[in-house]
Amino acid sequence: MMDIRASTHLPCGRHRLDLSFPRIMGILNVTPDSFSDGGRHAVPDDALRHAEQMLAEGAAIIDVGGESTRPGAEPVSVQQELDRVVPVVEALVREFDALVSVDTSTPEVMAATAQAGAGMINDVRNLRREGALSAAVVSGLPVCLMHMIGEPGDMQDDPHYDRPVEEAVATFLAQRVAACEAGGLRRERMLLDPGFGFAKSVEHNLRLLKHMDRLEALGLPLLVGMSRKSMIGKVLGRPVEERLSGSLALSALAVDRGARILRVHDVGPHVDAVNMTWAVLEEGSAHD
């Protein structure tokens, strides 16, 4: 089991990410159809300016995605994804020396963005696409493996589990870790994402967060993304542009239950919320 109070430095290309306290990952979707901000940052200059703002507000990582994984999303071609993502990664590294994560399941994109200077791979399909595991191993980068059943196009078609969802998620992720280790990916290069909103009802999401601390038994850093998601809208009756307060509450609860990376849209407010939560948990022993 990972000691969450011990200093943990994760090698991410030429960066080393300190995970001895929770970090913020800013979302940079360069897609026309993402559920919350689709089309807003599809132009490279707009993407760079938004990333610059997120870095200034305290984001430790910028997560660049060129394929929407919202429920019902259509797949994109490999070339489309490359054309969207690679120039943005190159510019983020060149202009800001940013630690860039690439939200992709595509082996060719993993290889090209690693070459462009990315420091992390964030794969909602947990390296199950053909060639993805090999590409991740060759990249030398850490990889976040996320729980999802099915594909974005059908994952929300009546999701159900035959046991408590936290047990199902923990078993699934443990199996994927073992499979990736067998394929040559070193365990110390893995992070885990419970997959809130992916093949889960509102009730599943709420229970999973309530019992998320049980995933710490897997002994790997936890990355959590609940920002602006539909679970907030369904519980609070808020449209996507009015979900910040709900997002902050969920992120604070996730930190309390062991999350080390929070993937969010609104970086500044989340930095404050997470740092305040951490100050309480650490009883005032502040970090720099």
Please describe what this structure looks like.
This protein is an alpha/beta fold. The chain is built from nine helices and ten strands. An eight-stranded parallel β-sheet has the order 8-7-6-5-4-3-10-9. Strands 1-2 form a two-stranded antiparallel sheet. A hairpin with a 2-residue loop joins strand 1 and strand 2. Helix 8 packs parallel to helix 9. The two termini are about 25 Å apart. The N terminus is likely disordered.
Strand content: 15-25%
What is the count of DSSP helices, taking H or I runs of 4+ residues? 9
**Unreliable stretches covering 5 or more consecutive residues:** 1-7, 33-39
Provide the gyration radius in Å.
Answer: 17 Å
Structural class: alpha/beta
Shape: globular
Distance between the amino and carboxyl termini: 26 Å
Overall pLDDT = 91
Q: What share of residues is helical?
A: 25-40%
| Largest sheet, spatial ordering of strands | 8-7-6-5-4-3-10-9
What sequence of helices (H) and strands (E) makes up the elements? EEEHEHEHEHEHEHEHHEH
The largest β sheet comes out as: 8 strands, parallel
For the secondary structure, the number of strands is 10
